[in-house]
Design goal:
The structure is a single chain. With 447 residues, the chain is mainly β. The strands form 6 sheets. The protein has a 6-stranded mixed sheet with strand order 1-10-9-3-7-6, with no helix packed on it. The protein is globular.
């Protein structure tokens, strides 16, 4: 590991990186600290509020940046962990800045503040930068990943702000604001209170349990598992949406493509697929990590269609194909049997007032603008729940984006037609469509 000083930089190979924002745990005069990240364009500005990854928005829509959770040790140190997948960063994002902020104190009262970067694949430690000149600041840009001559580099920044996360974010173009008091922006009881069957949080719990790295959990589960029965062919859902539903705006018809296998495989879809959206239905027998990704013309990762630890998984993913060449997919299933089916987007079902499911799914929404309440019941200690909306022209909307023991979220739902994708949901989920509500941004959600 290389220790660098403020302004120092070093090259970062193109891969997935884990970043820890480390400091002394809060208490005895030490304030609470939150880590966050901003994705910036060539002018050093965010493109929208969605380019801020923070406590109320723990993952970017592209999947390139996300908050993994918080870890504490017996020496009263605490680390917020972030993950950056440089292969999934959108082309117009030129910099990703890593920040820390405090709402109830200054960084002059935060001992041992530093940022540490390591490889997610190998655990190799790349860089360590220690902040040794903090005083009255309530927010810091600690470091940044940036593009230079087609490659990525990391730089230690150490720039302080006296205006907290809000002031720091405004400096990069964020315009989010809480509604005025009395605006009615209070969560509905179904979103704010545990429902039937939910276990109440232990007394005094103020933070989610420590996040277990997915790779480690996947290896443990895979080592315990033995090969089971072959996966069943994903069911063809009976109804196909016809003209007038709005589905024709998203993609055309083509013959379905079905393949089965075991373990890891790379597939070329040998049926002609027109430009537009397609769905990929998958099943996997047994336990362990299961992922399906799309590949570009160079064989590199271009999108994630499944990434789950659910047992006997059956789910649906969504991708947008340019129609210029054959679609290529990579399946990773340990030693397990799997089956994959590529089908026209017309095979999705409608989203009415309510929907329930398990794992990944895609639904067509054709109603007016409203509010979408989303909820996930999971058997894991701490789970990430992501729901996105896709417009016919490719524009995306974050509809649920939360990681917790009992994930639930609420977001504005644009007017249809809209493809609603339940993208990351290791458990049983529910969606409910209601009338529009006032939006909120800076107000901290309960953790």
């Amino acid at each position: 590991m290389t220790e660098i000083v403020k302004g120092g930089n070093l090259p970062v190979p193109g891969q997935v990186w884990r970043i820890a924002v480390v400091r002394r745990a809060a208490g005895d005069g030490v304030p609470e600290v939150d880590a966050s990240a901003l994705l910036l364009d060539a002018e050093g500005r965010v493109r929208s509020d969605g380019d801020l990854v923070f406590y109320n928005q723990p993952a970017h829509a592209s999947g390139a940046v996300r908050l993994l959770g918080q870890v504490r040790d017996e020496e009263r140190r605490v680390a917020d962990w972030l993950e950056i997948d440089t292969g999934r960063v959108e082309p117009d994002v030129r910099r990703i800045v890593i920040t820390a902020s405090s709402e109830d104190g200054t960084f002059g009262r935060v001992p041992d503040l530093h940022i540490r970067t390591m490889s997610a694949a190998t655990g190799e430690q790349l860089a360590l930068y220690e902040v040794d000149d903090a005083s009255t600041e309530t927010a810091f840009v600690l470091g940044e990943f940036y593009r230079r001559d087609g490659a990525w580099k990391f730089r230690a920044v150490g720039q302080g702000y006296d205006s907290g996360l809000i002031g720091l974010a405004e400096d990069f173009g964020i315009e989010g604001r809480d509604p005025e008091p009395g605006s009615g922006d209070e969560p509905a009881p179904s979103e704010a209170e545990p429902g039937p069957g939910d276990e109440p949080a232990p007394a005094g719990e103020t933070a989610p349990p420590e996040a277990i790295p997915e790779e480690l959990l996947a290896k443990v589960r895979a080592a315990e598992a033995a090969v089971q029965a072959p996966a069943q062919v994903p069911a063809q859902r009976p109804a196909r949406l016809g003209p007038g539903s709005g589905i024709e705006l998203f993609g055309g018809d083509f013959p379905e493509f079905v393949r089965s296998g075991k373990g890891r495989a790379t597939l070329t879809v040998d049926v002609p697929i027109p430009a537009g959206y397609v769905v990929v239905d998958t099943t996997r027998a047994g336990e362990g990590n299961f992922s399906v990704e799309s590949l570009d013309e160079n064989g590199k990762h271009s999108g994630l269609l499944a990434n789950t630890l659910l047992e006997d998984y059956e789910g649906r993913g969504l991708l947008r194909h340019d129609g210029k060449g054959p679609l290529r997919l990579r399946v990773s299933a340990g030693a397990r049997a799997w089956t994959l089916a590529v089908r026209p987007v017309a095979t999705v079902e409608r989203l009415g007032r309510r929907a329930r499911g398990r794992g990944g799914d895609v639904l067509l929404y054709t109603g007016p603008a409203g509010h979408l309440s989303s909820r996930l019941r999971t058997g894991f200690e701490h789970e990430y729940f992501l729901v996105q909306g896709h417009e016919p022209d490719g524009r995306r909307h974050l509809l649920a984006n939360v990681a917790s023991r009992l994930p639930r979220d609420g977001s504005p739902l644009p007017r249809g037609p809209l493809l609603v994708q339940v993208e990351s949901a290791d458990g049983d989920w529910s969606l409910e469509v209601g009338p529009p509500r006032p939006s909120r941004f800076w107000r901290r959600d309960a953790r």
